[in-house]
Specification:
Order of helices and strands: EHEHEHEHEHHHEHEHE
Oligomer: single chain
Number of helices: 9
Length: about 260
């Protein structure tokens, strides 16, 4: 991606925004039994700022690495962990309806709930994350993959700093240093993207599924076609044909897929 001209070749890119998607770890202890957690997060990218800010907190990631949130099934122990946690961090924007139902029925008045989608409304209000024909990521849900935008992750880190401090999980004396470290990493990822994308002849791409709206909007990429419009549903012949046409005739030189 950083090799300048791509000529007439097609590049297959596995996109995870560097450390924002590839360096997360599962919670310590595996999350079994009736252990109570300080923080529950739904997907692993959201665990990164939590662990950076509060390394001693007991953190549970609900959806294991390598499992799609669309097929993940909540267990009774997961529901208990959500209900008991001091802080719950989720994507929001309709991405985790089962978790939302548990939260709605929860009577834990001391619990803090952080939704990334709510935090970034101001920074993405001018972006349309649906496809050109208005098709959303899934029925009733627009592309929720905001963690692929380093600026969105910075916004999340700022809010989590206050939330975790209020929950007694972050020492105020080292909070500035920890959040500055997160900002520095987000800035480094942003620079890497801008330098690599700036060298490309074409910014038109095809994506495996509708997960790159925030990334495309941030870096001026044009999504010409989406192969799999709804996760877990086989692409239609028309979707495959549109992707092929975008690659053969529409100027697209890269296919973005997930690990």
């Amino acid at each position: 991606m950083g090799q300048g001209s791509l000529g007439g070749s097609i590049t297959l890119l596995v996109v995870g925004v560097g450390v924002l998607a590839l360096t997360f770890v599962l919670p310590r202890g595996g999350g079994g039994g009736d252990e109570r957690y300080d923080v529950v997060v739904t997907v692993s990218p959201l665990a990164w700022p939590v662990r950076e800010l509060a390394p001693d907190a007991r953190v549970k990631v609900l959806v294991p690495v390598g499992v799609t949130p669309h097929s993940w099934q909540m267990s009774p122990s997961d529901a208990r962990a959500i209900a008991d946690a001091r802080v719950v961090v989720l994507v929001g924007s309709g991405f985790e309806p089962g978790v939302e139902r548990v939260l709605a029925a929860n009577e834990n008045v001391d619990q803090e709930v952080v939704r990334l989608g709510d935090l970034i409304e101001g920074i993405d209000s001018d972006h349309d994350h649906s496809d050109d024909d208005g098709h959303d990521h899934a029925q009733g849900v627009q592309d929720p993959h905001a963690w692929l935008d380093p600026e969105a992750m910075g916004v999340l880190a700022s809010y989590l700093t206050k939330t975790l401090m209020g929950a007694g999980l972050l020492n105020p004396f080292d909070s500035t240093e920890r959040v500055d470290s997160i900002f520095a990493e987000c800035d480094a990822i942003d620079r890497e993207y801008r330098e690599a994308i700036g060298a490309l002849e074409s910014r038109t791409i095809v994506t495996e599924h509708n997960a790159y709206g925030y990334l495309a909007a941030r870096y001026g990429l044009e999504v010409a076609a989406v192969i799999r419009r709804v996760e877990g549903v086989e692409p239609s012949p028309g979707d495959v044909r549109a992707a092929a046409e975008a690659l053969q005739e529409g100027g697209a030189r890269a296919i973005f897929v997930e690990p």
